[in-house]
Amino acid sequence: MSRICEITGKKTAVWNRRSHSMRSTKRKFRPNLFYKNIKDPESGLVYRIRVSAAWLRTLRKKGIIV
Description:
Helix content is 15%, strand content 39%. It is an alpha+beta fold. The two termini are 27 Å apart.
């Protein structure tokens, strides 16, 4: 499974690592992802989604996740 936030769409970014001599090699920046269970208030179904830590803060702020 790929490392993508299902809500924000954040995914792995590939940049260059630069040494002191300015030699470049590839490196990866991975998003901070968590699996969370969210209950739909209308239907009562529980969904398991993969969200980033930044969006998890937003969900807690809005009162969707306790």
